[in-house]
Amino acid sequence: MSRLDPSLLAGLPPFMGMDQPALEHILEGAKPLRQPKNAHVFRQGEEAHSFYLLLDGYVRVVKLAPDGEQVIVRFIASGELLGIAKAIGRDSYPANAVAAADCVLLAWPSHLWESIVSAHPGFATNTYAMLGERLLETQDKVVELATERVEQRVANAVLKLANQSGRKTEEGTLIDFPISRQDISEMTGTTLHTVSRLLSGWEHAGWVKSSRQKVTLMEGHKLVMVASGQAGRKS
DNA sequence: ACATTAATACCAG
DNA sequence: CTGGTATTAATGT
What we know:
Domain Cyclic nucleotide-binding: 14-117
Helix content: 25-40%
Order of helices and strands: HEEEEEEEEHHHEEHHEEH
Distance between the termini: 65 Å
Domain HTH crp-type: 148-221
CATH architecture of the largest domain: Sandwich
Number of helices: 7
Protein name: Cyclic nucleotide-binding domain-containing protein
Organism: Hoeflea alexandrii
Mean pLDDT: 91
Oligomer: single chain
Keywords: DNA-binding, Transcription, Transcription regulation
Largest sheet: 4 strands, antiparallel
Shape: globular
């Protein structure tokens, strides 16, 4: 068993403002874990035996509707916690978590949650702030789904992804993990057909560039226009 | 070279 | 305009 370096955690949002001994203490209970692309980190309904910190990669959180329909709730980027069912008083996971790219994570057994939180008040406030952020995000998304048209929603989704995980290239901003039209449709409540049509439309206009599992954003401001409903109206 | 899976084209409601 | 099926294109083995 190799020793884990506390500098892995230093500077990450959940551990902001914590000193070296505290980080070492938290790391004692963690074991590293590596998940290949498309592997499940945990499944909806499963007993929440562990909680996780994503060190590298991306995982998508997918909610399964009773009829088998899938909805992508959010993407988790590196440095974020996931599977913290215990923090909201649950003992089963509320959704599936799937590696969107090859991932490396740290896993803690869930029973350590209580002791870590009570031993480290800074960690507690950080994670509750994070939960609050996520709550606001999902509220915004509800409003979006209820009030905006499809083109606005997918424009928003693309912008969000580019913003959250964009990598600069000569072409523009590349979303640096594999993303299919199906994925985008599951984020925005449409079908892959509509997403495909919109994306190729924008590609002809020169606003984005897309190929299999890849989307690069070239003219972000144009998409912002679409997202705000100021463009693309047709009759 | 083949099988698998994503993206687009095509067609129907 | 949306949703389903077929065809084509890309990717992994």
